[in-house]
Design brief:
338 residues; alpha/beta; FAD/NAD(P)-binding domain; 2 domains; 5-stranded parallel sheet; 9 helices; 24% strand; elongated
């Protein structure tokens, strides 16, 4: 197990907090050492971004032995700044993550392994998790904070802009593009939902439906009353400067100037472990949980983007905190026989 010293993490967090406007990845000089023990934990958290770290903190503060396994590939690593999260509005995702990691690992019962969880299988006492690096760890409770993987469209320039000016959420990104020429890439009810939200932020909106609008005459009339243009031709290319959108080109040759494009992309679960375990998914593809973040599998909890359509730092932290607290409650109940 590769561990990172508390001194190094605190130094890293201080450096990150002093450079909140620099969109760079988290880096640290690490002290590498192989630990043979422990390999058995009260809980293992797969995924060390905001939801996973929040779950681990809740467990660490309950003096639980916790292992976080993280591959170091957060979905927002290309996003320049995070917003709508109290005390960290405008900070870079890397800076928020560095401070959070230092604070979580300040709890001595929380351990961190840099690696990719490849499998998780039930055992008599809970679960065994094996990494791609060949290490196996066991636990009584398993928390999935594995995120989702967006499926990028085959449009030149789109992936370069994703998380920067090709965006998913008006609450996370809309304020920064207020009053600017903005596109919405959607059709049907999703298009109307986004149009009503974005219309509050800018009067300059073009709806790109990529084919038929799939909207009733009444809804098309409502868009027209709000001066929202509708383009049915497909987007064939995005012109941008280092991820910041300048215009889109359509299949009919038309070029439209926009600075942001809202898009609801299809996605898959980032990890195959939820499916392999047999976790039930919602109709939209998220891991189904109850009100306490518990999945359909005994002793397994899920939090963050993998289990919620609310893709925001604040939501991830909230669901992670709840998952950690409920996993601890289940441990307490088992130990007391209640």
């Amino acid at each position: 197990m590769n561990t990172i010293t508390r001194r190094t993490l605190l130094k890293q967090a201080i450096m990150a907090s002093g450079t909140l406007l620099l969109p760079r990845a988290v880096t640290a000089t690490t002290k590498q050492q192989h630990m043979k023990e422990p390999t058995n934990f009260h809980a293992i958290v797969i995924g060390g971004s905001y939801a996973g770290m929040s779950a681990a903190m809740a467990l660490g503060r309950s003096v639980r032995n916790v292992l976080i396994i993280d591959a170091g590939k957060p979905c927002n690593r290309q996003t320049p700044h995070s917003h709508n999260f109290l005390t960290q509005d405008g900070s870079t995702p890397a800076a928020i993550g560095a401070v959070a990691r230092a604070q979580v690992l300040a709890y001595p019962t929380v351990q961190w392994v840099q690696g990719t969880a490849a499998s998780a299988v039930p055992t008599a006492a809970g679960y065994a998790v094996t990494t791609q690096e060949g290490h196996t760890y066991t636990c009584r409770k398993l928390i999935l904070a594995t995120g989702i993987a967006d499926t990028m469209p085959a449009i030149p320039g789109f992936a370069d802009c994703w998380g920067i000016s090709a965006i998913h959420c008006p609450y996370c990104h809309g304020y920064e593009y207020r009053g600017q020429p903005t596109g919405i890439w959607a059709s049907g009810e999703r298009a109307m939902h986004l149009a009503t939200l974005v219309a509050n932020l800018t009067p300059h909106i073009t709806l790109f439906t990529n084919g038929p609008e799939n909207l009733s005459a009444d809804k098309l009339a409502a868009l027209q009353r709000s001066n929202i243009a509708v383009e049915t031709a497909s987007i064939t290319e995005i012109q941008h400067n280092k991820g910041y959108m300048q215009a889109v080109t359509l299949a009919n040759g038309k070029r439209i100037t926009i600075q942001a494009l809202y898009a609801a992309l299809p996605f898959t679960q980032h990890s195959t472990i939820p499916h392999a375990l047999g976790c039930t998914l919602t109709e939209y593809g998220h891991i189904q949980t109850d009100a306490f973040q518990k999945t359909s599998m005994p002793g397994v909890y899920a939090c963050g983007d993998c289990a919620s359509p609310m893709r925001a730092v604040a939501a991830a932290v909230a669901t992670g905190n709840l998952a950690g607290a409920m996993a601890n409650k289940e441990l307490v109940d088992e130990d007391f026989g209640t």
